[in-house]
Design brief:
alpha/beta; 2 domains; methyltransferase; seven-stranded mixed β-sheet; two-stranded antiparallel ribbon; 20% strand; EC 2.1.1.297
């Protein structure tokens, strides 16, 4: 049976469903704005279809799917998890609650990595999650050799599935940060590691609190994983190689200080499209 029954079906129309759902979302503007997309997901139709078929009456199965999706959204579950997909760079990535939802500001890390190396070279992506950064780079620089690591087997399964579906070449390895990279060196190392302090109130916000905490929180000050990556990176960078790190908007000075202490030069912090300091990079000095 079609998800949209004939107009004599006894259930509510598309228009009435959306109106009722938005009333239920009073006080939750994000959820209210997502009602049309949720209904389109439940009906398996494009969102634009709803406008042209406002008087159609979805069948009982579709009504049940819509109710489930709406309840999950009202409970704070991110839309990306409900859809199972999230756009990043020029890609549509599968996402699950095992990985962070890729965010637009992380595209800055991709842009800067592309500017640091030509058509060929080796790059490591630490804490790859859904594979967003590594796959965006692979889609733009197909001749790069890209290795991506993550401690989570579940996250790597998502990333590997994305690579297979998109036909992109990235080698995924399981382990903490540099552990799977013993004896190897790269021209660039990139990472969007956990950088939120353990007691930061942002962790209570809708969406964020549903994402994997281990991929968000890094000690009391948010700097533990950034410091660990900086400390271990020199052993895995070629002379003149670059380290690029995403971080919190107030962490640029601390990250630059850590990089300077580790012997990096050409330090710079770049702002995202919202003018928030977001990525800091440094270069390992060339051998004398």
């Amino acid at each position: 049976m079609s998800a949209v029954a004939a107009t004599e079906h006894a259930g509510p129309t598309v228009q009435a469903l959306l109106a009722a759902a938005r009333r239920r979302c009073a006080g939750n503007s994000a959820a209210a704005g997502d009602c049309a997309l949720l209904l389109a997901l439940a009906l398996d139709v494009p969102r634009a279809w709803l406008l042209a078929h406002a008087e159609q009456r979805p069948d009982d199965a579709a009504l049940g799917r819509f109710e489930t999706l709406l309840r999950r959204r009202l409970a704070g579950e991110p839309m990306a998890y409900l859809r199972g997909r999230q756009g990043f760079w020029s890609l549509e990535l599968d996402v699950t609650p095992d990985v962070l939802v890729p965010r637009p500001e992380t595209e800055l890390l991709v842009e800067l990595a592309l500017a640091c190396m030509g058509e060929c070279g080796r790059l490591a992506d630490l804490g790859t999650g859904s594979g967003a950064i590594a796959l965006a780079l692979a889609s733009t620089r197909p001749h790069w050799q890209i290795v991506a690591t993550d401690r989570s087997a579940a996250a790597l399964a998502v990333a590997d599935g994305n690579a297979a579906r998109l036909g992109l070449s990235v080698e995924f390895r399981q382990g903490d940060w540099f552990a799977p990279l013993a004896g190897e060196r790269f021209d660039i190392i990139v990472s969007n590691p956990p950088y939120i302090a353990a007691h930061d109130t942002c962790l209570e916000g809708d969406g964020v609190r549903r994402e994997p905490r281990a991929a968000l929180v890094a000690g009391d000050d948010g700097l533990a994983d950034l410091a660990a990556i900086i400390a271990g990176s020199a052993a895995h960078l070629s002379p003149g190689g670059w380290l690029l790190l995403e971080h919190g908007a107030d962490q640029g000075p601390a990250v630059r200080a850590l990089l300077a202490s580790a012997g990096f030069v050409a330090l710079a912090t770049h702002a995202d499209l919202a003018s928030r300091p977001r990525v800091t990079l440094g270069r390992l000095p060339c051998a004398n």
